[in-house]
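Review box. Two proteins, two foldings.
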Amino acid sequence: MSGVGDFSVQALVSKSSSEAEMKQKISREKLSELLQLCGMTDPPRKKHVHDFFRVSKNQTLDEFVNEYLRMISLKSILAMHHDISSKQKVDQKTVLSYFTSNSCNIDAKYLIDKLYSYLKKKDTATITLSETLKWYQNQFHMIGENRESKRGSQAASETKEKKIDEVYNEKKDELPSIIRRNSKIVATLGPASSSLDMLRKLVRVGVNIFRLNFSHAKPDYSNMVPLIEALQQIKRENAGTPYVPAVLADLQGPKFRTGELKDHKEVTLVKGSTINLVTSKIQTVGDGKTITTGTADADLCVRNLEVGQRVMINDGAIVLRVKERKSKEELKCEVLIGGVLSERKGINTPELTVPLPALTAKDKKDCKFVCEGGFADFIALSFVQRKEDVEELKQLISISLPEDAEQPKIICKIEKPQAIECIDSILEVTDGIMVARGDLGVECSLQKLPGYQKLLIHKANLSKKIVITATQMLESMITNAAPTRAEVSDVANACYDGTDAVMLSGESAVGNFPIEAVTMMSEICLEAEKTMRELERDRLDYEEEEDIGGLKFRYAVAESACRAAEIIQAKAVIFFCEQFEVAIYLAKLRPSCPIFIVTFTESIASCTQGLYGCHPILIKEDIESFKTTDDFTRTIERHIFSLTGTALEESDVMVCAHRCQFPSLHNTVRMVKLGKSRG
């Protein structure tokens, strides 16, 4: 090993083309080239260096040379001290003296010191030099591997940071996406999104409102206070920018759950079998014959359920129907949908209006905490069934708010069919609603849920109230980095329906990809809004169309007829059509009543069958056979009555035409009562 010092960093640098090369990862070919330049050509030394390269690959040249020098330093000591056998036991002081006398680097001294500290704990203070060498080599090989792992983790982190930067570092010549996007994003906070660093990233990728779920608040709010403080800091940091988020405090509301089971073992319920449902007053632990309630709110459900009403357990996975009331505290139920029942599962009662206020004792305490803290812009009220629930919350807020404090806006969560039945009165007293599709989908049949969503959004917009669409919008992104196609369509369709905001729940609270979920939701909304604008422009911006000619006048007549039909609640729209494009346009206006397309052209009549809400009336008579406009109108009436029977007799309809062979119908929109005699 004599002469090994010739292989030095300085020698390699002097032989290298540039200092930058020292920072590049070394290859085996480059190593052979350098060994040749340094004069290390004898096979044993070349093999020794290449063997070391094999365990130290993926290092830069600088790192490789330094670690090689650290390794050979101990061998140099052994080579220069032939008086000590490699198997002779030595203490720490002896080994360190060898390192000192040979000017060994500080890393080697540190490692040897670490070795003997470990040995002292093992009640031995001596070790052979060969064992020391082996341990020493393993240690710095581990250091190299750890550094490589750390370098890889750092690179991955930098890549992720770069992706985040790409999202919100907008071009200077365009508006930020958070402004360009009209739909708002609500993100629920939880373990995956509670750190200050994560909150900063989430607002930058598009979160407009953060939701605090008080269902998980501890009695002393020790888990909520750090979140609130972090949110307030985010607001301060982003003051004067578009990235100042609002805060929504979501009250828990009543909770209906089953109780514990015997020996904590699951129970299988078989379809068609019977089982007892009892309050905790009768029995506290359930078994194969009895299900117990686990909350006082659930006790109230049992006391008020009637024969024939359904009980949904575990989000509808198990369905019971009340067969018999055995006592005030006990029901006999039939299993409609069986399954495996575990402890403390949710209970829903779709047909029951529970005689229970929306505000529980916990909600009142939480509301007071929110109001006194002054950190929330919105308060969401769960389990709303009637407008009186909202008025109760308003009164509580007014009592709890400090003097001159701004009152938070109230968002009513629509989770019960009873709320839909009186939605108009609820909208009169609330500031907004949330389409809470989780519980709503359990309480009502799933087939009705899309219609309810559209109805609620529509009514909220008519009432000029905020509307948020929530639950399972990108559910698969809790565990996956990309959503399903159906989820993308779901978010987009909520935008098309006219929602003000879309909400993430588990995706941002406990998911593995909260940033990706928000980014994806923002991009979906932007694309949906772009499509909506394009459709609106295509529908209304006639001046930009080429070769449109007189079609824009026909469009104006068609739109006027549809709007008038909605105002007077006409039973039908009758349109004299000479061009199929106009029939298509009329269909896309989606009036609430049937459209009858009157034409003399068979191809137009045939194609009308493919248009939404349109029905063709083909006039086969020659135009010359009609002496007056009334003759023509009576012929149309006969066709309509032939199609509809007597359903439209004495009904008001809108009759419109742009160009018509009868001058009196040309460019007209008029209201006509079908069946009225004409002179």
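Next protein.
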Amino acid sequence: TQVFQLLEVLYSEFDSEARKQGVFKVETNGDNYVAVVGLPDPRYDHALVMAQFAQRCLGRFRDLMKELELSLGPGTAKLGMRIGMHSGPVTAGVLRGERQRFQLFGDTISTARQLESTGVRNMVQISQETAELLKTAGLINTLSPREEVISVTGKGQLQTYWLHTNFPTKNTDVSFYDTDTFFEVGKASTPTIYEMQPSLHEAPKTARRNFLSDMKSLRAKSLKGEREKKELTPWTSWHSWSSISVANDSTEEELERLITWNASVLETHLQKILSQRKESKRTRRNSKTLSLVSTPPIPYIDELSEAVAMPSFNRDAVNRIMNQGYKMTPLPEKVRTELHNYVTRIAALYRGVNFHNFEHASHVTMSANKLMNKVCSPMLFNGNKKNEKKENKGGNTTKAQEADFFFSTYGIGLDPLAQFAIVFAALIHDVDHTGIPNFELIKENADLGSQYKNRTVAEQNSIHIALSILMEPKFENLRLCIYTDEESKQRFRQLLINVVVATDIADRDRMGKEKARWERAFADVSSSEELWQNKSDEELAQIDVSLKATLVLEQIMLASDVAHTMQHWLTFVKWNEKLFRELWAAYSSGRGTIDPRINWYQGQISFYDGYIIPLAKKLKECGVFGSAGEEYLSFALKNREEWTEKGEEISAQFIQSITMSGA
């Protein structure tokens, strides 16, 4: 669904640019976009127009990926596109049949397609023919020959050129042609732009001037964005980015981007807290009424709650959210600055391990935020019941729909503090993770083990770090935005402890208790609606949803922590290799007892069968997550099937990789 939405938005932008430039869109085929200049009417300036179109599309693509990052996740800005351009004669026509459509045929279209497929992320590769036309137009300084020739079917080895659109500086340490300096091409989307016309004699000066002006504007905008980012992150002035681990190949820009994205996600949830606080007319209390002193490390597992208290049913609040939504209140600038600095501090404390690093934390945050948004969408419950398909004439929800929304989400949809707590927990849940299992931590550090009763040591340590930093005086405004009294402070703390401790799936005793709690709470979901149907508001307010809500929140965290196993196959393989390398690093250094080279293939199958698929079924069966529950289960089953077919070969590649690299 997200891929479809992304392409729909992207192609709409390309269509808009095409209309402005007089470019003719031929078709879209999956993630390929085909366009031409000179059809149906010939144009002598076709190469210039198509070059300008390619440059503008690439610039708009970059802007869109940054704009969509908050809604689609931090990986969105890493997406790229390849563009191929060629000039020459083409055959065009409409093929008759059931689905008639205009198509292009011939050597020119084939060459353009191969120029795209052999291209590099976020670059425009053009043929010798197109390059000559642009040189004739006076644009020789915008071209650079590709260092290596490419092989094109039917033509053999061809010299091609890069059309400059991202302006690498002369002093840069990165080669303009070095594909290794870009993110993996295999992950790039490839909207293809084809340009086909036989001749260009003399380009108008205005076309050339517009093209160069566009490129200068794009560069100026890029520099402006860099300056704005530096102004937004004052913390970087006194701390080196090299200490923050996202991934081995991450850049400083990537680190800043992830921090800003995480802060933006948390900011959205904080805005909901402020909105609810304002609507409920709860005043901000004096900070002196709150305990601001950080406590020493304690066994946080002693604070685990069977069921964290959740707000009771409130008709006015439900009606307001379902019909009006949250009136988002901008955060005070002091709070925004403290939030950004807090995320940066947390990021700095993630270690340089292969799997449990800041990139993983960001991925978990993205997944938790997605699931939380699914839970909190009134559209999932607004009129989707068989006996409640119609709304009131005035467009407002019925009382039955309001009850359905509240109790179908177990109150989570009306609890912005709980929503914030889960996303916050996702961010901090592995901070300071050393890449070794808990039992090894206990063996290496007896004092740490005794502090936390020799159980769930890494998770409790992460909780302690996160809470200790939050309690520092410099984050006072942030704290008072999250909670205003001891009651809300304690509830935030309990939610955080419950969901972070839940991620220790190696604790068999706790996992057994969690299973028993789930079976007790969700023994018969199909008949649960009877609990709230045809009841007065007073009776509804007496129904306690705390246990079910707590369990659902824990499931959100558990699913998010292993979300890569229930997402696209390539995402799963990427993170699976990272985990393999982390376990190997621990084992090869004598800090782990599990040799991942032994039985890795079968181990992943067992993990899917014993944990991932049952977890995905819970997401679907509890009925809270809408289409996301079905989506996660579907991906889990598909990935399990594909691993069965390809896993042995992939496992062998993992082993070969660490053997050759000596990692």
